[in-house]
Structures are given as C-alpha cells and as structure tokens.
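Our preliminary data section would be incomplete without showing what the modeling component actually yields. Below, a chain of 111 amino acids is followed by its predicted structure, encoded as tokens that our downstream tools consume directly.
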Amino acid sequence: QVQLVESGGGLVQAGGSLRLSCAASGDTTCISTMGWYRQAPEKERELVAIQANDGNIDYADSVKGRFTISRDNAKKTLYLQMSSLKPEDTAVYYCNRGPVYGQGTQVTVSS
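Predicted structure:
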C-alpha cells in the first residue's frame, strides 16, 4: 500500500507562487501515473494536473501555463509548481496515485 503526504500549502496573495510536494512511501517500486487534484468549498474534486507513467502530462485548462507538475523518482516525490495564483485557485490540494489520495494541503489565495 502506498501512502502519500502533501506539504507546501499556505496563504499567498494573488499573483504569487507556491510549490506543493507529495512524498510517497510504501510500495512505490513501480513508476505509476500520479496527479494533483483540488477541491474548493461546496465544489466537486477536480483534476489539476497529471503525469502518466509514460511521462505524458496533462493540465486542467484553468491552470495551463501557470502550473507545472514534475516528479523526482529517486526521492519518490511529486511536485506542483503554482505561479500567477488566483483567488479561484483556493482549494484543498490532493496528491493521487491509483486509488490512493493524500490528506490534502490547503492553498488559500487572497485578492
């Protein structure tokens, strides 16, 4: 079983940047598709960015050009670099691998 722990969230002003990290532990012997999701209050969880095990990357239209997903397989860590943040990016951000989600990290963007 894989465990995922996110970090790096916080409060930032609009236009600012944050980098989220997701540390994986447990059975991580296989390189797998991993992604970031987010859930804003009273909204459904949505995909933000995903990196497939073949390296292909995809982003939600709302974050294209502003967010960058990357991974360091040696460190078993997934990253999400977020720039030009907007108030509508405010949400709890979750790391995902297969059926497993982390506990989430809060990102709040003030206007």
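The chain has a mean pLDDT of 94. The chain has no helices and eleven strands. Preliminary results of this kind motivate Aim 1 of the renewal.
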